[in-house]
Design a protein that fits this description.
With 249 residues, the protein is α/β, with parallel strands linked by helices. The protein has eight helices and ten strands. The chain has a domain of 68 residues.
């Protein structure tokens, strides 16, 4: 096992619960994201993926359990800890009235990039995510896919080593998916721990070291990224869990 894989987990959740009115949320989840790995979580709409990500990022406080980011309790994490985190949850950060380039400048400043390095960091992100044609275009005029590229670039331009991406391929064309895939693989190889959610099981299998399945706010099993017919295996797990809960009720 590599040194990166034996380091402190980039994210760690133990017995984490966060409930909303009606019973939605996450319930008693254990999950970790190791340095140097891409860990995917998959589930149907409403399974709790986004809620879990928001809890891991300190956007929501858990009702029970503990959450650590880079070895630090999320409640006690300081600015230096969060400066090593990159995230895109639900919607990309893109101010409609600003150009793609200006949006990335804002992202760099928000992530604490030194003023003297902002230009080079932004230029590098534009090159990495193939945004040169759109750098001078206002975000309001960009397609959904290109706004998503800007959002992903903004989340990753400061080279975080703890990364959470919620449905990052949303709206991306095939070229954009490939750019993202290569970016994530490079970052994992350099030691980043990456948690990603997706509905696209085939795409997840191309990058993930582990795939965790969640249903009704709970972890119900795992899929082998190298396995055959992931979609069938996924729906079999979900169906068996649904049947077991109905029988118990």
């Amino acid at each position: 096992m590599s040194t990166a894989r034996t380091a402190v987990p980039r994210f760690e959740a133990r017995k984490v619960s966060r409930s909303f009115r009606g019973g939605a949320g996450v319930h008693g989840i254990d999950l970790d994201v190791a340095a140097g790995e891409i860990h995917a979580i998959v589930g149907l709409n409403g399974a709790g993926k986004t809620t879990l990500m928001r809890v891991l990022l300190g956007m929501l406080r858990p009702d029970a359990g503990t959450v650590r980011v880079r070895g630090v309790d999320v409640v006690e994490a300081d600015a230096a800890t969060w400066a090593r985190v990159g995230q895109l949850v639900e919607h990309p950060l893109a101010y409609a009235e600003l150009t793609g380039h200006a949006n990335l400048e804002v992202a760099a400043r928000l992530h604490g990039v030194e003023r003297g390095r902002v230009r080079s960091v932004v230029d590098r992100a534009i090159h990495e995510f193939d945004l040169g044609r759109y750098a001078g275009v206002r975000a309001s005029r960009l397609s959904l896919g290109n706004r998503q590229r800007v959002g992903i670039a903004g989340a990753l331009l400061h080279d975080p080593d703890a990364i959470v991406l919620d449905e990052p391929t949303n709206g991306l064309d095939p070229a954009g998916v490939i750019v993202l895939r290569e970016s994530l693989l490079r970052r994992a190889a350099a030691g980043a721990g990456i948690l990603v959610s997706s509905h696209h099981l085939d795409e997840v299998a191309r990058v993930a070291d582990r795939i965790t399945v969640v249903n009704d706010g709970r972890v119900i099993g795992a899929l082998d990224p190298g396995g055959f017919d992931l979609e069938r295996a996924f729906f079999a797990l979900v169906h068996a869990d649904d049947e077991a809960r109905r029988a118990a009720a």
